[in-house]
Amino acid sequence: MENQNKNDIRNYKRWFAMSNQEIFDKLKTNPETGLSSELAKKKLLDEGENKLAEAKREPGWLIFLKTLADPLAIIMLIAGFLSIILPIILIGRIEHEQIPGIIVIFGVVLINSIIATTQESKAQKSLTALKSLAEPKAVVLRDGVQSEISVEQIVRGDMVFLDTGKFIPADIRIVESPKLRVDESALTGESLPVDKHADKLADSEMMLGDQKNMGFMSTYITDGRAVGVVVATGEYSAMGKIAKSISETKTKRTPLQKKLTQLAIWISTIALVMGIGIFLLSYLTGGEKNNVELIAAIIFSISAGIALIPESIMIIVTISLSVSAKKMASRNVIVKTFNAIETLGTVNVICSDKTGTLTQNKMTIEKLFLDKNIVELKNFKYDPKEQEQWHFVNGLVLCSDAISIGNARLGDPTEIALTDWGHTLNINELELRDTYKRIDEIPFDSERKLMTTVNQVDDKQVAYVKGALDNLLKICKKIYLNGKVVPLTETIKTEISQNVEPLLQDALRVLGLAYKIIETGQEFAQDNYEKDLIFLGGVAMMDPPRKEAKFAVARANDSGIRVIMITGDHKITAMAIAKKIGIASPKYNEALTGLEIDALNDEEFKEKLKTVNVFARVNPEHKTRIVETLQSQNKIVAMTGDGVNDAPSLTKADIGIAMGITGTDVAKESAKAILTDDNFATIISGVREGRNVYEKIKRAIAFLLGANFSQMLVILFILSFWAIVGHTGKIIALGDINVLWHIVSVETILAIPYGLAHSKEQVMMYEPRSPHESVFKWIFVEIISITFFNTIFAIIAFCIAYYGYKDKIESPDQLMAITSSAAYIVIIFAPIFYVWIVQIRNNTVKIAKEKSEKATLNEWMLGAMIIAFLLNIITIFIPGLNDFFNVPNTLEETIVTILLISVGLSVLPFVFIFIETLIFKAIYQKIHKDDLKIAKFNFAKKQKIDKIKRFKRKMNIKIEKMKEE
Ligand code: ATP
């Protein structure tokens, strides 16, 4: 086999022992220009895509079998088999009239399982598709240009560029690596990151862990950056040889799904008890007591029992979750599991990064800080001849990695601001970096909040250190002040802190620059760079808040969610932004720094958390402490993150949310959801979806249980009625076919559209629910009122038929059939009308808060109502067909009148539930007058913003069209 061939270059193991040039020659690549796209294309065809063998998706038949193993399906199947076996045992045959009932039982199981199977495989497919949206990309050099490509397109010989937080996309031989450290735990089990370098190693047998100049697929960079040449891809990589397939996407059951299975089992138990009651009533009070009657009673009570079980509830959950996952993706939230949707719906604290999430991450330099004073940009006269000034301006550009190609900018926005400022002073960063070559560097990290480069400036080696002003001043010994370098005393430091404050109050981020010349003979070592520096000055840059952030924070607060800002930025800057967007408020008016957090014990920190919404100058470890403390107070915490070091807090949070644009691969891997636009406001739309799923499911439960319970009660009523009035013959309530048709009509046709219903804004008006909350909370009254009104009007229809027509209809059996039909019509028609009202009746009737939100019918629901209505009309009024549904021939005028009266009556449960809703609304409005004002205000504002957005979008389309023309 090719794979086994040791001479095959793809199996070559000793890349570590080759020189860079030997590798380039062997792989026919050029380190300056990379592969040509043509060769890369050819290689891709020859070698295949760079991916591990994919796990096979669960086949449809297996999903189908699994749906049959669902407890509810099992109960239905047992019921179905009992309906076959019992008659055979007791009377040696199955009666003709029982066959349709049996067919319907199995038919219902089959239809349910087919729908569940298609929904389940759709759900699996959409999760896989969503995951692929979040898959990492890699920067490679092809045709002399760096570009980002899908990891799967990488081939041997590609030059790849990697930095902190990136997954290594294939096996690479490192050819350049300043201070590179890689976490190889996924491959070697080594838990600590290992140092890597670019030097050739001895040509001997070597374990993967010892190959320090190699980077392996699926491991990731914890520090530094690297350039490497790809030597093995896909299944030929070290990881590919160990793991034959990537983990399979499984749609695990969410807590809600598990809760609902329990609920359904619980209801099945009630169904069993009620079924026995029905059996006793129908058999013992009936006429003859023989085996044929016994069987009829058993089969009827089995049908009635299973009619109570809400079989379709699981399908509704699956539909709701996958519809929501898709909707979320279109709104820039990618969820990796359905669980994440549910958790988002319960979140009551969101801890958000500031830069880029709450702010635009578009930085521009506004002011300078020189000679201990604030200097307006326009007043700065750059004189390159002045040595320290030259170092200040050029040092800021040299100590950055951002580049500009035409109008495009690449790199960290903080550094882009620096290179852009350089342009205004005629400094081209690429030329500058080419002239004053970088010899060494210590990359920026959010713990030190500093970055250092050592550049060859003429005959000197100069260390430039830029970073957070407070941290930088700590490692400076001197300062360039009024044209002279003087010692940096504590008094000057205090003056600087005081004088810089107005910049921070203006929400500006101040970045300082210091430098030192590494004298000959001085130790040329990284430990030596960041000390005894000369402070040159600072730049103050503005990163404006995102326009939508303020509104999104207000919406979060309205819906009972607290927003906490966590940032590496200065406390005063952070507080200034927090005030602008409403995160700091009279209740939460304090900010804490990382150092201040460290000084507090757990109890003190808990206490502080009651008033602090802003955490500044924090390190990633503080994030974990914040999450843990909030969780100890029973909060459900969402935490955003982007860096490698954010991984622990992202994992620890109830829902970790990674940034899609600025986030590292590691952060994305640790998170349960990814924001493709890095925008805080997007989290809030995710929460809205999460809450809506739960809401839809609750509506469906209320509807189903109400409809099913009322049917059961009506059957019990009819049986008791005839027993009480002393009917001597065979008592029939509804036929088993009617009861089973109720399942098809109500559960399958009417309830499933709940899962497809539109999401509603109102859900953002409530406090977040507890994840332990019972699914019955807030819908108990609804279930009771549906059951009540439905039962009452079915009984009224029955009574009208009985008392109004008992003298006109001679045969008692015919009277029994007509009265039962009257009640049946209400049972089957009423849900068609109130399905809509149940859908709009919101949690605790808080819909009242939102007058402006119209209760719109979703098109699926409308379609379902029309179909159910037509089908029921046909089954009741078409002679011949109605026989099958035990409805008497409708050609007789008396009967038609009775049936029409019943159809009319079936609208009344809807009317009464509607009136009840209005009454609840009025009461609610009275109690929550003040809250409503605020909620309405915010809602109206949102509508205005939406309107403007829609208008802008329309205008843009028009402009585009005009341009094309
Ligand atoms: P967030 O709000 O998401 O935490 P942040 O940018 O405020 O983002 P960090 O990236 O940890 O947080 O930055 C912390 C501080 O480090 C900044 O306030 C700034 O002073 C400094 N800093 C940021 N980027 C750089 C950089 N590229 N080089 C040097 N210093 C930087």
From TrEMBL:
<dbReference type="GO" id="GO:0005886">
    <property type="term" value="C:plasma membrane"/>
</dbReference>
<dbReference type="GO" id="GO:1902600">
    <property type="term" value="P:proton transmembrane transport"/>
</dbReference>
<keyword id="KW-0472">Membrane</keyword>
<feature type="transmembrane region" description="Helical">
    <location>
        <begin position="295"/>
        <end position="321"/>
    </location>
</feature>
<dbReference type="GO" id="GO:0006883">
    <property type="term" value="P:intracellular sodium ion homeostasis"/>
</dbReference>
<keyword id="KW-0067">ATP-binding</keyword>
<dbReference type="InterPro" id="IPR050510">
    <property type="entry name" value="Cation_transp_ATPase_P-type"/>
</dbReference>
<dbReference type="GO" id="GO:0016887">
    <property type="term" value="F:ATP hydrolysis activity"/>
</dbReference>
<dbReference type="GO" id="GO:0005391">
    <property type="term" value="F:P-type sodium:potassium-exchanging transporter activity"/>
</dbReference>
<dbReference type="Pfam" id="PF00690">
    <property type="entry name" value="Cation_ATPase_N"/>
</dbReference>
<feature type="transmembrane region" description="Helical">
    <location>
        <begin position="778"/>
        <end position="803"/>
    </location>
</feature>
<dbReference type="InterPro" id="IPR036412">
    <property type="entry name" value="HAD-like_sf"/>
</dbReference>
<dbReference type="InterPro" id="IPR023214">
    <property type="entry name" value="HAD_sf"/>
</dbReference>
<dbReference type="GO" id="GO:0030007">
    <property type="term" value="P:intracellular potassium ion homeostasis"/>
</dbReference>
<feature type="transmembrane region" description="Helical">
    <location>
        <begin position="98"/>
        <end position="117"/>
    </location>
</feature>
<dbReference type="InterPro" id="IPR001757">
    <property type="entry name" value="P_typ_ATPase"/>
</dbReference>
<dbReference type="Pfam" id="PF00689">
    <property type="entry name" value="Cation_ATPase_C"/>
</dbReference>
<keyword id="KW-1003">Cell membrane</keyword>
<dbReference type="GO" id="GO:1990573">
    <property type="term" value="P:potassium ion import across plasma membrane"/>
</dbReference>
<feature type="transmembrane region" description="Helical">
    <location>
        <begin position="737"/>
        <end position="757"/>
    </location>
</feature>
<feature type="domain" description="Cation-transporting P-type ATPase N-terminal">
    <location>
        <begin position="14"/>
        <end position="88"/>
    </location>
</feature>
<feature type="transmembrane region" description="Helical">
    <location>
        <begin position="898"/>
        <end position="920"/>
    </location>
</feature>
<dbReference type="GO" id="GO:0005524">
    <property type="term" value="F:ATP binding"/>
</dbReference>
<keyword id="KW-0597">Phosphoprotein</keyword>
<protein>
    <submittedName>
        <fullName>Cation-transporting ATPase</fullName>
    </submittedName>
</protein>
<feature type="transmembrane region" description="Helical">
    <location>
        <begin position="263"/>
        <end position="283"/>
    </location>
</feature>
<feature type="transmembrane region" description="Helical">
    <location>
        <begin position="72"/>
        <end position="92"/>
    </location>
</feature>
<dbReference type="InterPro" id="IPR023298">
    <property type="entry name" value="ATPase_P-typ_TM_dom_sf"/>
</dbReference>
<dbReference type="InterPro" id="IPR008250">
    <property type="entry name" value="ATPase_P-typ_transduc_dom_A_sf"/>
</dbReference>
<feature type="transmembrane region" description="Helical">
    <location>
        <begin position="815"/>
        <end position="837"/>
    </location>
</feature>
<dbReference type="GO" id="GO:0036376">
    <property type="term" value="P:sodium ion export across plasma membrane"/>
</dbReference>
<dbReference type="InterPro" id="IPR023299">
    <property type="entry name" value="ATPase_P-typ_cyto_dom_N"/>
</dbReference>
<keyword id="KW-1278">Translocase</keyword>
<keyword id="KW-0812">Transmembrane</keyword>
<dbReference type="InterPro" id="IPR044492">
    <property type="entry name" value="P_typ_ATPase_HD_dom"/>
</dbReference>
<keyword id="KW-0460">Magnesium</keyword>
<dbReference type="InterPro" id="IPR059000">
    <property type="entry name" value="ATPase_P-type_domA"/>
</dbReference>
<dbReference type="Pfam" id="PF00122">
    <property type="entry name" value="E1-E2_ATPase"/>
</dbReference>
<feature type="transmembrane region" description="Helical">
    <location>
        <begin position="857"/>
        <end position="878"/>
    </location>
</feature>
<feature type="transmembrane region" description="Helical">
    <location>
        <begin position="701"/>
        <end position="725"/>
    </location>
</feature>
<dbReference type="InterPro" id="IPR018303">
    <property type="entry name" value="ATPase_P-typ_P_site"/>
</dbReference>
<comment type="similarity">
    <text>Belongs to the cation transport ATPase (P-type) (TC 3.A.3) family. Type IIA subfamily.</text>
</comment>
